[in-house]
Design goal:
8-stranded mixed beta sheet; 14 helices; 9-stranded mixed beta sheet; alpha+beta; single chain; Rossmann fold; BirA Bifunctional Protein, domain 2; binds adenosine-5'-triphosphate; binds magnesium ion; 3 domains
Amino acid sequence: MKMTKLFVQTQREYPSDAEVISHKMLARAGYIRKLTSGIYNFLPLMWRVLKKIETIVREEMDASGAQELLMPFVQPKELWEESGRWEAYGKELMRMKDRHDRIMCLGPTHEEVITAIARDGLKSYKQLPVNLYQIQSKFRDEVRPRYGLLRGREFIMKDAYSFDTDEDGLDEEYKKMAQTYKRIFDRCGLETKMVQSDSGAIGGSVSHEFMVITDTDAGENDVFYCDSCDYAANSNHAISKMTETNTDGQIYFNKSEIIDTPNTHSIEELSKYLKIPSTLILKTLVYIIDKNPVLALIRGDRTVEETKLMNAVGGTEIRIASAAEIKELMEQNGFDAIPGFIGPKGIKNVKIIADKTVQNMKNFVVGINETDKHQVGANLPDLGISEIIYQDIRLVEAGDICPVCGKPLSVTKGIEVGNIFKLGTKYSKPMNAVYTDENGKTHPYIMGCYGIGISRTAAAAVEAHNDENGIKWPLSIAPYHVVVIPVSTIDELQMSTATKIYENLLKAGVEAVIDDRDERAGVKFKDADLIGFPYRITVGRTITEGLVEYKVRETGETKNLTPENAVSEITEIVKTIK
Ligand code: ATP
Ligand code: MG
């Protein structure tokens, strides 16, 4: 490809709305162009990268025995009613009407469609197991589309679905997919960590995510992991062993009484005022889960993990209650306390979920729904609460104790590029998707589902491989392998040598670009670095001595070689791409 013909326009500046490196660089280097919020054009360079990732995914999925198909992007409401997700999915599902007033949606994922396909085609145990996958655009009306391709509204995903007769079969397929994913990301030049995660709205019981570890804001997930064993989990699922006590050994309150605590609106203010550690305070938070208020109780020094809390009541949407909603809750229960003084005492008809940290708390301090007052030296039985559900709803913190081996946990950030779920019969049962066994009895399929964000993987690769000058693509997914730069296009020897090198590279099967633009060398070098060609061959003045410069983008290493050796060196490297 000649640079003068390549459809790419590099920009001087990063786009003003770009917050993370991959968004900034992909936009500035001419890979993507925004159409509207969360919706991007994949320009020719980007499309080459995406196709390479897709090829790797296809090769590995096919090698695992899975079969590719393609399902429709538009789906009818009725199918989503069968699974019960028309109601449950929420606003990410883009719903619309056709000209006949039939209600449809844009596919955010395809469990319903694939289950309907299986139901029609997989009748007998003899046909199982099967794993079907597709690579396709998805649409999710994300509440906060951001970070360019990392969280778009329209994006490309590989989604696979497996059908088995029993749990053992599913286990085997799940393991096989985990290995397949590892190979896929390795081949893409991405180091990933496989971590336990929450199964979320998609359902099922066991799931793992593949995370690209990063220390930047692009990592939307906190991953807790243990250096001493292989425990690793998303913060929405991570657990830790807790120390049992809530005091430092000192006795602060030897009797239960209500005392004045003026203007102590926060745990910090209260612990300062009473001169007690925050572990002695029982913190009460009001959340709204699927429109209902829920009280969450936790030891004062710890934070509630919202996904865990939401799962504890089987909800699908959670947010912290507003001041007005807290006021309403107070009024309904005959109180008028302001936030900071709320507690579980006397609150009726509201679910009360207490973290396990609360179970062992003694002689603590707690709000009693009276402004400027707290009860000190309190114990749970004294509070007269009719029902408390104890559940682990605590956010793990770095330094907490690993639940597997007892060593301290560390935390890092991760970009989720793929995940694997055990769905079980979550879709096959409600959709009555069954097979017949040896004895003529019918059973719902045991299903699994396995996603990889193709476009997110490309962006994650940029997050993992860049420097201040631009992208450093891993060779296997780079849009082109090498750029050949004649320093002066009007110098005949330079231009003819560069052209010869370029042609020989093409003949050898190397994907090459020749920068034949009549531009200053500095401009060409800058663009080459920004776009991120893994290799660069520069034909400049040293060609009079028969030498060209060979440069590796990843390491910055340069050496002078003859044109023939430069071509053969790159050809050999390209042959090693798996
Ligand atoms: P997230 O927690 O990041 O929203 P998810 O759990 O909703 O992801 P899945 O529904 O399991 O993701 O989708 C499978 C894969 O699709 C994810 O692992 C991710 O790589 C990709 N993906 C999901 N949402 C987006 C998005 N909005 N933009 C780009 N890729 C996405
Ligand atoms: Mg999501």
